[in-house]
Amino acid sequence: xxxxxxxxxxxxxxxxxxxxxxxxxxxxxxxxxxxxxxxxxxxxxxxxxxxxxxxxxxxxxxxxxxxxxxxxxxxxxxxxxxxxxxxxxxxxxxxxxxxxxxxxxxxxxxxxxxxxxxxxxxxxxxxxxxxxxxxxxxxxxxxxxxxxxxxxxxxxxxxxxxxxxxxxxxxxxxxxxxxxxxxxxxxxxxxxxxxxxxxxxxxxxxxxxxxxxxxxxxxxxxxxxxxxxxxxxxxxxxxxxxxxxxxxxxxxxxxxxxxxxxxxxxxxxxxxxxxxxxxxxxxxx
Length: 285
Description:
Layout: H1 2-20, E1 27-33, E2 46-50, E3 58-60, E4 62-64, E5 82-90, E6 99-109, E7 121-127, E8 140-144, E9 150-153, E10 155-157, H2 160-164, H3 170-175, E11 186-192, E12 195-205, E13 224-230, E14 236-243, E15 258-264, E16 272-278
Parallel strand pairs: 4-6, 10-12
Antiparallel strand pairs: 1-2, 1-5, 2-3, 5-6, 6-12, 7-8, 7-11, 8-9, 11-12, 13-14, 15-16
């Protein structure tokens, strides 16, 4: 009888240890949040829906982000615009009643996308190596998240130049669209006749991934000013001295969800160049 009791205790301890050290698979989840008032703990306010599936959402008590994330644009109602890559695990304080979402990567929707269509699915885009003499050329694979099937496409259409306006940085967005690493965007869209029409793009955070390079200190002669170019990471590059010229003083206004970025541009002959950058990305200048 004593041996049976000891064996049972050992099995329970072994099972508990295996549960706490279990390696759980990572998937892509769309995050939701509701301001729920509960009379007792635990009180999950978040949800995690595995994208491109019909699985029911999981109630989530806490979202565990990697160190270094600015949670201002991630917590509470901001969570409704997130897709995360991660795993669901028992909450340590309520292991039998609540779940946490442990995050590996975070993606946030750009403001002013289009309303999602019933046919929309979630994709990442990679170069498939196909090269053509004529167009259209199906040189990109649209990979269905969590399902891992793919379809060759020849064009990816985004709504942001139209919706945000002329000061949206399309070169920055284009650099994130077709990638071979983990830092590309997620597109919520529909494929028709080899073209992906994206309703919403989710940008990998943080952006940019690393710090911008430090620029050398230069002194310009009288009549000249320091000017720069801006690269696809939104970093200022190529400082040079440019002769001052007459510039208009009109300053644009950015729509909600975007902030104004400005710098003296070499290509604008020393005049100020403006961009409307998403408010949630890191400032680079």
